Hints:
binds zinc ion; alpha/beta; 3-stranded antiparallel sheet; 2 domains; single chain; 282 residues; globular; Rossmann fold; 7-stranded parallel sheet
Amino acid sequence: MQYTGITPELINRLKQAIRDADAVLIGAGAGLSTAAGFTYAGSRFERFFSDFIRKYHFRDMYTGGFYPFRSLEEKWAYWSRYILINRYENPPKPVYTRLLNQVKNKDFFVITTNVDHCFQKAGIDKARLFYTQGDYGLFQCSTPCHRRTYDNEEVILKMVAEQKDMRIPSALVPRCPKCGEPMTMNLRSDETFVEDLGWNEAASRYVNWVQARMDQKLLLLELGVGMNTPAIIKYPFWKLTAQNKSATYVCVNLGEAECPKEIEDRAIVITADVADLIDALQ
Ligand SMILES: [Zn+2]
């Protein structure tokens, strides 16, 4: 069933689908954080990066992150602000908290491609979360010479506090404790991504959780997942729905809500803002 916009009928149907489900699998993409107010352009970008915008004419926070800064001191002046506001500060709207409220009494699990860890900030039990693409809050060796990650909160806060004229003090430039090469964020952008112990445990928990519920009344709730990396959440959700005849697939997206014909009779496809929808479910 296809819906455009939010109607009382749709809300009743969704509430019932959540009530009836034995278990809920949430798949969260970039659209969910955008809905929570984590926007990477406009006033939020201008407020924190006006000096970088003046110097380099960056259009948004995301593309600015790819700029080949000439020094590590300048790179980390940029990235420490970026990590502070997108990883350690709460999103402007309580979308994640409200979403977790909807499933807190259910058997549920979350898989997300988001690296801002809003689920953790909203208080999720980490054992129910698989963060496939990494975490802004972790450093890893850029080489990488070893497969470990390091919490970066303390040093990121220092970098933000102690930077001057778009440079952090050289002593704060993070270096690998084993080989001395620069550290980088633990983000999947190429083959140097470190899948550490915590990541591997989360991956196994996800696989085991899904396998143990293949015959149950499963609700697959896909929120704000676009077509950038459909192989991580979207395609597996379609496949799981096709394999499990008592599963229901829900897709919420502002621009790319769709599903294949094979699962159409058990799908609720909604073109709407995720934040508005979650608000309406309260
Ligand atoms: Zn190293």
